[in-house]
Amino acid sequence: MSSFQGLSIALSSLQTQRRAMDVAGQNIANAATPGYTRQRVETSPIAGPRASLSDGVRGWTTGSGVQVTQVARLADRLASSRLETATGDAALAGARAGVLAGVEDDLGGLSTMSGALGKMYGAWSGLAIANPVGQTGDAARVTVVGRSEEVAATLRQGAARTSATWSDVRGELGTLTTEVNAIASSVADLNRLIVTTEGTGAPAHELADQRDLLVRQLSSLVGATSVPRDGSGAVDVVVGGQKLVDGAVAGSITVSGPTAMTGSTTPATTISLAGSTDALAVGGTAAGLTEALSITLPGVMGGWDRVATTLADQVNGLHGDPPVFTANDGGDVTAATITASISAADVKAGTSGTDTSIADGVVKLSESTTGPDARWRTFFTATAGAASAADVRARATASAADSAQGVLTSSTGVDVDSEMVDLLTYQRAYEGAARVLTAVDQMLDTLINRTGVVGR
């Protein structure tokens, strides 16, 4: 090895160790940056020149130093894919639990409707006790009408709250759609930048980190997953088996369906890719919201309607003409339209004379296994049970997502202690290379400036 080759070897080491320290510093600087993936310098030895025959050796001489092969991004494709799936599952469960928790609050507790029904039964009982044909029964009849209207008003309020919740969820879904389309466009732009940057031979690791973080947001919103594209550095984003992002080209999603609730028979709300009429099998929050609009909230409205129709059918069936409960729009009785339209003078305690069979029959509905009370308890219990189960599921999937995030972080995140050890290693190697450079320089100084000085 010539002295000048020694200088080249020492210089290559200085350059390589400095690059390695830069990468370690970048890792440490981004230890707390969300979505950052640890980087590592990969090196390889540089082969030396072939010796000439005059050197007295055959083959290769001492190597020519070290070089940086690449700055690798330590991504874990399997862990990242698992996190995308877990994130979508957790978002779906969370959205479902959130809607059901709101519905449970809208019910107002078991005592709300039960209390109104109890007061109505008490009014009918009071009518039976009062003289049903005498003047003393007039006040009792007014009370029956008032308490009956309280029950009807409670049902209308419940239906109105459910309808308002539907509108809120529909608005939230519209906002989500806008957000998804914006993120998809950003992912496509980053794909384009990554391919262009890596095409020049420069790394685009920070761009890839930003892109992957956006993909996880899409996983939460619509259950998206990413698929690498033929080693170019770009990824496709797939939702429900269809591409939302195809390399550098972003698609968009649209919402189809009603913009206002029309009761328990409200048509389904669907999401599709722009330009397509086929429903897209979304996941994540979007799936929870569309499920709420198409199934959950219409089902809740149906629960309110069953209580209303049971009440109207059974009380009206006992009372006869005129009916106690009717629809304020002249149609079929629902929770949204029920009203106690009867006048106090038309309220009957019995069929004739001092008979109180009608009032007694209404009071007995409170004990019936198919009466309004039973319908209400069944409705409330089923809704509360579904809300509780959804909350448990949301907690479990959130825990699974946290676990998946922990696995990804452990394999791709920055361990500051480990980086500090690497930094010290690179520092010592840099110092060693500098010492080699000094030694070679001194050798050359002796050779050039001091040879032949002795004996002068």
Automatic annotation (TrEMBL):
Q: Where is the Flagellar hook-associated protein FlgK helical domain?
A: 113-320
Q: Could you tell me the Gene Ontology terms of the biological process aspect for this record?
A: bacterial-type flagellum assembly
Q: Which domain of life is it from?
A: Bacteria
Keywords, ordered alphabetically: Bacterial flagellum, Cell projection, Cilium, Flagellum, Secreted
Q: What is its main location?
A: other
Domain Flagellar basal-body/hook protein C-terminal spans what residues? Answer: 405-449
Locate the Flagellar basal body rod protein N-terminal domain: which residues?
8-37
User: Is the keyword Secreted in the record?
Assistant: yes
Extract one GO cellular component term from the record.
bacterial-type flagellum hook
* Location of this chain's protein in the cell: Bacterial flagellum; Secreted
* GO molecular function, a single term: structural molecule activity
* Pfam family for this entry, one: Flg_bbr_C
Sequence similarity: Belongs to the flagella basal body rod proteins family.
Instruction: Please identify the protein, giving its name as recorded.
Output: Flagellar hook-associated protein 1
Q: Lineage, please?
A: Bacteria, Bacillati, Actinomycetota, Actinomycetes, Kineosporiales
